[in-house]
Amino acid sequence: METMGNGTKLREFGWAEMDRQHRSLVGAIDFLGAAPRQRASDLAELRRILQEIKDHFDWEEAEMLQAGYPDLVHHKSDHHRQLLNIQDLHKLVDAGQEMLDADFFAACREWNFRHIRSLDGDFVLFCNDRESWDLQQELRSWEYESRLAAYPD
C-alpha cells in the first residue's frame, strides 16, 4: 500500500488488475518526481506515464461499460480533465516554457489518491454491493435536495 507524504494510504480494493494499475501509476509518478530534473528524460518519462494513464483509463472505462455503471459519464469526465491537465503540462515542458516541479508531483499524486478513494471506490462498490451503492446514491440525492431547499426561491 502506497502512502502520501501526509500519511494518506492508497486505497486497494482487492480487484487485482485495478490495484496493480493504480500502484503502477502512483509509482511511476513518484519515480519521476524523485529523479533529477533533465528536460529530455522528463519528457520521455512523462510521455510514458501519459500512455500508461490513457491505457488505464481505457481499461477502467471498458470495465464500467461492461458492468452497466450508471455514473460512467461523470467518472469519464474526471479522467478527461486530468488527462488534459497532464497533456497541457507536457506541451509546456516540451516547449521549454515549464519545468516539472514539486507542485506538479503533489497535485498529480493528490488527484490520484482522491480519484481512487472516491470515484473508483464508488465503482467498486457498484460492482460488489449494488444495494449499498443504491443506498449511497439515494443519500447523496437527499443531501443535494436539502442543500437546494436551503436556498430561497
SSE topology:
Elements: H1 16-34, H2 39-67, H3 72-94, H4 102-128, H5 130-149
Overall form: globular
Q: Give the low-pLDDT segments.
A: 2-6
Question: What is the CA-atom radius of gyration, in angstroms?
Answer: 18 Å
Order of helices and strands: HHHHH
Structural class: mainly alpha
State the total count of DSSP E strands: 0
Mean pLDDT: 89
Number of helices: 5
Main sheet record: none
Brief overview, please?
By secondary structure, this protein is an all-alpha fold.
Features:
153 residues; mainly alpha; globular
Molecular structure report:
It is built from 5 helices and no strands. Residues 2-6 have low confidence and may be disordered. 77% of the residues lie in helices and 0% in strands. α1 packs antiparallel against α2, α1 packs antiparallel against α4 (102-128) and α2 runs antiparallel to α3 (72-94). It is globular, with a radius of gyration of 18 Å. It starts with 15 loop residues before the first helix and ends with a helix. It has 153 residues and is mainly alpha-helical. The chain has helices at residues 16-34, 39-67, 72-94, 102-128, 130-149.
